[in-house]
Specification:
The complex is a heterodimer. Chain A is mainly alpha-helical. Chain A is built from ten helices and no strands. Chain A has a domain of about 90 residues: Rna Polymerase Sigma Factor, Chain: A, CATH 1.10.1740. In chain A, helix 7 packs across helix 10. By secondary structure, chain B is mostly helical. Chain B has one domain. In chain B, about 75% of the residues lie in helices and about 0% in strands. Chain B contains five helices and no strands. Chain B is elongated and about 65 Å long. The N terminus of chain B is likely disordered. The chains are: A mainly alpha, B mainly alpha. At the A-B interface, helix 1, helix 2, helix 3, helix 7 and helix 8 of A face helix 4 and helix 5 of B. Bound molecules: zinc ion (ZN). The site of zinc ion has 8 residues of chain B, from helix 2 and helix 4. Chain A: GO terms for molecular function: DNA binding; sigma factor activity. Chain A: Keywords: Sigma factor, Transcription, Transcription regulation.
Chain lengths: ~200, ~90
């Protein structure tokens, strides 16, 4: 470490460091992008853009600091600045798009119907997962975001505040409201399935 | 017994006082997210030992969080993505 201080890294060294430190975040980052855009191609573009930006600013990134939070922050800003303008579709379309996404994987193939009846427990798991996804995707993007960051990615409130550029108090209240709407949507589902909550 | 406790709490909040249960509701997220201080945890745990509605709200909130982190499917990253990121970075001066 100390050998490198004050010295410019070569392009190869920089690239190697960049890949070692930031590429491990690819999976959570892509999932976050997908949950924001609800489209695989858009998620792809958004993630690429995020990494290119990160590369440009990599000199400012301090080694050993929270790479994941840093990348999430860049991605979220890119999403707000560019993607929201590009996709003029309001949040309402989300629902059907995602239903389509899941259905195309499971049902289109010939074996689709058979496999759902075969693995009973697995398909129950799938049903719950699909329902959670639909309920989540039907939430406004700000609500969706805090739930993903907190429950799926396990960021702390402090990290979320930094990623989203909002005070911790706002993180808390947004999360609270987001969970209330999610609960409401899932309770409707539970009732329609005959469960009592 | 428990329902009587609840009734008292509800009356309090109707009078415009902040009841203990209202305070507990504000702590629910902190508790399930592991963000509560040790004082808040102690206060919370003591309360839910004797208040059934708050105990149940806590269970529900935990369940909700579990649904998201345990059941939401992760999408699979396309294999080409890491490669194209690496390629584009190498082109960048
Ligand atoms: Zn209570």
């Amino acid at each position: 470490m100390s050998e490198q201080t004050g010295k410019q890294l070569s392009k190869e060294e920089k690239d190697a460091r960049f890949e070692a430190e930031l590429l491990p975040v690819l999976d959570p980052l892509y999932n976050f992008a997908y949950r924001l855009t609800l489209d695989e191609d858009d998620a792809n573009d958004l993630v690429q853009e995020t990494y290119l930006k990160a590369y440009r600013f990599f000199d400012y990134f301090e080694q050993g600091t929270n790479a994941k939070a840093w990348l999430f922050r860049i991605l979220k800003n890119s999403f707000i600045n560019e993607f929201r303008k590009k996709s003029k579709q309001p949040a309402k379309v989300d629902y059907s798009e995602v239903e389509g996404y899941y259905n195309s994987d499971d049902v289109e193939g010939e074996g689709g119907v058979a496999s759902t009846t075969d693995m009973r427990t697995e398909s129950v798991q799938d049903l719950i997962g699909d329902e959670v996804a639909s309920a989540l995707n039907a939430l406004p993007v700000d609500f969706r975001t805090v739930i993903i960051l907190c429950d799926l990615e396990g960021f702390t409130y402090e990290e979320m505040a930094k990623i989203l550029d909002i005070p911790i108090g706002t993180v808390r209240s947004r999360l609270h409201r987001a969970r209330n709407s999610l609960k409401e949507k899932l309770e409707k589902y539970a009732k329609s399935m005959g469960y009592n909550s | 017994m428990e329902s009587r406790i609840t009734e008292t709490h509800q009356k309090l909040s109707e009078d415009g006082h902040e009841s203990e249960c209202d305070k507990i509701v504000m702590l629910l997220d902190l508790m399930i997210d592991g963000e509560a201080s040790s004082e808040q945890q102690a206060y919370f745990n003591t309360h839910i030992e004797e208040c059934v509605p708050c105990f149940e709200s806590h269970q529900k909130q935990k369940l909700l969080k579990g649904l998201v982190c345990g059941h939401l499917k992760r999408v699979i990253v396309p294999e080409s993505l890491a490669l194209s990121i690496k390629a584009r970075i190498q082109e960048t001066v």
